[in-house]
Design a protein that fits this description.
218 residues, alpha/beta, Rossmann fold, Arc Repressor Mutant, subunit A, 11 helices
């Protein structure tokens, strides 16, 4: 069981990427935050599995493409042994097909390798707070489909927010459009997901896509 977020201690992070420069940059960015501790590094998927079992991190930042074993396969294996660990993928682009596959199998989101240092640290904290890190367009696609499937009892304001999210707007853009704060926009999106009985956006995506092939009976 992961302990960092639950006890209020440091958020313990494992970094898995086959490029030393990327690992070094991530470590420097995360170690600069007093609330985050990098507890290990791995250069391939199999090593990530071994180290994860040794250090029991709260969160793993993992390259989606790695030698020996790909990130998605490693995630599935790790989750079987450490079901509470959060996993965020590193990717060079937000190509939808790969990301949808990762989310469907249980990822909590993704970080672009070109992200700013502040965005990386923010992503770690947001995921540990129960959010998922997804692109606005990916979220829009999912919420639009959910809106078409079912019509929960939403307030007029929530309907407005849902329409804007379905257009692909970010929380900041929604806030500007409705003349509310970004925090209020985030709260409305959270309420929408709650009314649809989802904990976060990643869970909504998994529901919308249906069970993965790995979940199907043999």
């Amino acid at each position: 069981m992961s302990t960092g977020a639950a006890t209020g201690n440091l958020i313990r992070v494992l970094i898995a990427d086959d490029h030393p420069v990327v690992r070094g940059g991530l470590r420097a960015a995360l170690d600069a935050d007093p609330g985050i501790q990098v507890v290990g590094e791995a250069s391939d998927g199999l090593e990530a599995e071994d180290i994860a079992l040794q250090v029991n991190p709260d969160l793993i930042i993992m390259d989606i493409y790695m030698p020996v074993r790909e990130g998605v396969k490693s995630m599935v294996s790790i989750r079987q042994k450490l079901p509470d660990v959060k996993i965020v993928f590193l990717t060079v682009s937000d190509r939808e097909a790969d990301l949808l596959a990762a989310i469907r199998l249980g990822a909590d989101g993704y970080i672009l390798k070109r992200s700013d240092v502040g965005d990386i640290v923010s992503a770690v904290r947001r995921v540990m707070a129960g959010e998922s890190i997804l692109s606005p367009l990916l979220t829009a696609r999912v919420l639009k489909e959910l809106k078409d499937r079912q019509a929960p009892a939403l307030t007029p304001r929530e309907h407005e927010v849902l329409d804007l999210v379905s257009e692909g707007l970010t929380n900041a853009e929604i806030a500007r459009r409705l003349s509310i704060s970004p925090g209020s926009a985030s709260t409305y999106v959270f309420r929408l997901l709650k009314k649809l009985h989802f904990k976060n956006r990643a869970e909504a995506i998994r529901y919308t896509l249906g069970p993965s092939p790995a979940d199907q009976p043999m």
